[in-house]
Amino acid sequence: QVQIVESGGGLVQPGGSLRLSCVASGITFNNYAMGWYRQAPGKQRKLVATINTGGNKNYADSVKGRFTISRDNGNNTVYLQMNSLKPEDTAVYYCKAERAARFLSYWGQGTQVTVSS
After folding, report:
1. In this predicted structure, what is the pLDDT of residue 84?
2. Scanning 35, 53, 70, 80, which has its CA 20 to 30 A from the CA of 63?
3. Which three-class secondary structure state does DSSP give residue 8?
């Protein structure tokens, strides 16, 4: 049974930092690209950052220079370090595991991030 579990969300003031974690089980983690996506109320889910099996990273323009994605293959975990947070970063953040060659993808349940004073 595949489980994708996010944690680390919360309420933070503008300019603050948070680190999100996503633990995957039931998959061969090394074979999956991992990504963070976010969905604000009334808006579509959008890509935030991805990291492939080779460690190559991709970021949305809106978070470049502020967010950093990383993975720990030994612990089946992907992280999103978020610095210099802005109110517009407020959203539910979702973790996704994807193995495109096998047409496989799995989503977590999401974790709420709220940036407000």
Report:
1. 98
2. 53
3. coil
Tokens 């976010």, residue located: 38
* pLDDT at residue 101 in the model: 87
The span from the CA of 48 to the CA of 93, in Å, is 9
Take residue 11 and report the two structure tokens written for it: 């309420």
Strands (E), 1-117: 3-7, 10-12, 18-25, 33-39, 46-51, 57-59, 67-72, 77-82, 91-99, 104-107, 111-115
Q: Residue 60 gets which letter from DSSP?
A: -
